[in-house]
Structure formats: C-alpha cells, structure tokens
What we know:
Largest sheet: 7 strands, mixed
Number of helices: 16
Distance between the termini: 28 Å
Strand order of the largest sheet: 17-20-21-16-15-23-24
Mean pLDDT: 93
Shape: globular
Number of strands: 26
Radius of gyration: 24 Å
Helix content: 25-40%
Strand content: 15-25%
Structural class: alpha/beta
Amino acid sequence: xxxRSAGETRMPTPSDIFYGTPIYNTPPTHRYNVxxxxxxxxxxxxxQQQADNVEAFHQAYEEAVKSVRESLGGxxxxxxxxxxxxxxxxxxxxxxxxxxxxxxEFAEGSEREVEAAVSAAKAAAPDWETxxxxxxxxxxxxxxxxxxxxxxxxxxxVSLENGKNRTxxxxxxxxxxDFLDFYSSEFERANGYEFDTGEPTPGQHTTNLxxxxxxxxxxxxxNFPMALFVGMSAGALITGNTVVxxxxxxxxxxxxxxxxxxxxxxxxxGVLNLVMGGGSDVGQPLVEHEDVSGVAFTGSRGVGLHIxxxxxxxxxxxxxxxxxxxxxxxxVSDTADIDEAVEGVKNGAFSFSGQKxxxxxxxxxxxxxxxxxxxxxxxxxxxxxxxxxxxxxxFVSPLINDGALEDYQEITEQARNxxxxxxGGNVVTDGDLDAGRFVEPTVVTDIPHEHxxxxxxxxxxFVTIHPVSGLEEGIEKSNDSExxxxxxxxxxxxxxxxxxxxxIESGMCYVNRNQSxxxxxxxQAQPFGGWKFSGTTGKFAGGYWYLQQxxxxxxxxxxx
Length: 560
C-alpha cells in the first residue's frame, strides 16, 4: 500500500495500461494498491503432469471418490439467513452414470422459501455493503484456500453428481478457485471501484464510485456445477450485493458444499441464501420478486430471454447478466494440419458428451480435405472410451438426464433420415452401463447448412461436417447464426488467420488449438462470454470488465 500527498497525481504504470486503472488525485487518507495480487490459474492436473506426478493425482482422486461415495444419500436442507431450512417436500438426485446410486435427498423450495430468502438477503445488504475491500477479499480468499484443501473431494463430488470424468471434474473445481482468486485480485486492485476525483472547481470535493444494486438472483446450470455457481455468486457477492442462489436441480450437492465453505470462510448470515427446487417453483418467483434487483444466469437462450422480458415487463432497471449458449463453428483450411484439427474437433465436440455451451458443433472444411478430415475424425471418435465418470480411461461421459437421452435419440434419427451418420447414433447399454445414460459420439455429414441440426444447440456429443469452397464461405456460414459464443480455425496461412480474427462474429476465438477447438477457456487469459444471443452484456466471466456489471455508478460532490 502507498500513501500519497494531497494533490499528488500518480503517473501511469505498465499495470495501469494493462488493467485500465484510472488516474486520479489521491487525498492523504486514501490508500491504493498499485499492483494487484499475483494471479495464477490453478491447473491441478497439468501441474501434476509437469511434475511427473500424475499417479499421485489419480490416487488422490480415487481415494476421494471412495470417501465421497460412502457419504452419499444424506438429507440436505435449504439455507436461509444462516439457518438450515427443511420443507415439506424433497426431491431425490441420482448419479447420471448409475441411476441406482443416490446422491441425496434435497429440500424443495417454493415461493414461500423464496420470499424468506429474499427478505433475509435484503436485510443483510446494508451491513454487507459497509464491509471494506480487505474484509470482503479475505472471506473469498479463505474460501479459495478451503477449496484447495478439499479439491479432490469436490472433484469427486462433481464426477458422481454430474458425470464429468476426473480431469474435467478437477478443472471445474480449479476454475471455481480461479474465479475467487481473480475477482479478489480485481476488486482489490480497483480499491472496490472507489476513486477520489479531486477538486474540479475550488471548494468542491468529488468522489466517484460503484455501488451494489442490492439483492441478486443467481441461477446456475448443471454442466459446470462448481465453477459457474461459484463464479456468478462470487461476482455478485464480492461487489457488495447479497444473493439468493438456485442451483440446477440435477446438481445441488456441490452447491450445498460451497455454501458451507463460504460460511466457514466467514461470510455473514443472510448474505448468501440457497433455495433449491424447480424453475417454476423457485426460479420464476425469484426472478419476479420485487426486491430482486439483478439476475446472473447461465442456461438456455429461451429461459434467459424470458428473464430479460420479465425484468422489462416488471419495470426493473437492474442488470440481467446471462450467458445463453452457442452453436460453435470451426473452419478447417486446406493449409491446416489435419491431425491437429481432428484432435481439436474431437475434444471440443465429445468431451463431457458435448454438454457444454462451448462445444464444437459444426465444422466447415475445405472441399479438398473434407474426406481426409471426416475419415480421421470418425476413426478417432470410434476409439474414444465411453464409461463411468470415475473410471480412469473414460472420455465420453453419461448424459445428465432422461430428457437429454430422448433428445439424442431424436436428433440422431433425424440425422439418419436427412443426412449421413458416419459413426454413433446409438445408446450404449453394455455391461454395467445400462444403469446410466451413455451414448455414442456422433459424426454426421450431408446436412445442409440451413438444416435445424446445423443451427440449433443440442448439448449432446453430435457434430455436423460441411464442405466449403474457401475461407470466405466458411466465415459467412460460421457467422450465419443467432449465436456467437466460440469459434475455431485451423490454418497455417497467416493471411487467413488475420482475416478470420477480423471477420468472425464470436466472443471467444481460437486458432490451431488441438487441446480443444472451442472449449476450455481459462479465467483471466480467456474470459468467457459471447456475442449476439450467446450473451446479454458483452462483458465476459473471468475478465476485467465482469465485476463492474454487478454495480452502478454514483458521483459524490461535497462543498467544503
């Protein structure tokens, strides 16, 4: 921390240029942390790989799975104003990979519990806003440290509850920790977004600051049950809002564990309230409540737009911060390394069975290389291991619920009728997989670009391949979508690459990324969000402009 003399103007530093720090005059009592705390992505599995210690990772994960499995099946209440709340109704969650494995019984909320939770959040808001920067940051750093200590347990819980394999489950937990670290760093760096702006005219002293809106609803999805629940709620909370959170009904256990972690970390009662249950019973009354000032949501386009419409109809002026899916295109040029392109598309389309808004779903391949690309992708897809999330070799995970399984059967049947299915299209019931929802990764050609299979988001391990004459046609068809979340290009032509970056209509753009053509964004380095109907604000999670969305500006002038 540095203390500056009255009237002293701080000169810009490289950190200011990179982080966009305002330059201002600083009064004697104002402290400013010029350099943010160091931020590094968690990257547990990669770190173990680099240390040649992968076996230790697998051993720790497998021990955690055994421990978590033994603890499953319990009863889990809501949390309102720091108190456990049971209701007259409950719902049961089972594992998508083994429907005979009960995750637990969860209290099911209703409009009555929503009312109690919002009232508690509203009452807690004034005191929470008075917490200074250091006090708030300390709580979320404490939570990050607790999560680091429990990361294998949390990853095992994700695997059992939502079906992610071990590396993806750990990446989900890592991303949650990254959100806590990065948002703490940003909030601290900006001094809570409060700036002394000096004396514009003699005798007047001015301050400019951002203040919280009040109560935020946070509605999170099943596919990143730890990262997105933590990221959205942390964004609202660290900026001084209070929260009523509703996790997906298929993945409430990890949310329940995180609420307990924040309580242990020192979050005051009523600041975060957890109400579990369905969209019509909990989500809708929460969004429509008169004391809810803003919503953070990740999910389907239809639900997100309905939330926006509800806010407008009710005359609410607060933000709807929503990420609403994608139909993510990849272009494969005739200069591409075809093997690298196949690897990237395979990973982007079929990891977690395509149950990601960032999943690769349509591929535009230059005509001269489309046969080679398709043949190699089919071969790679057929070699992927389908199995329980906790098995070491599993790549293709189970589908989350019966609705997803039905959708898979419908679109693959449609693909057989209207195109060519090269591989996949079947439900897998071999051996002990019949207790779960397992399906084959599916590669389809001969589907027109205009066809609904090539235009609608499916959230399934399903990819269509389309021929294009060159880059211009590939860009035109890539952009011909109501979504604009992620996009990829495989090319070694620098002119093509530069032109693609300039013309592609997408929030996140990747070139020659064999790790995954469109998925796997990292906090800070690759902020996550989209254009068009893929998002509502144009400001991305895990980026430098995310936190400000949860606040509104106030200018204060005092005549002395």
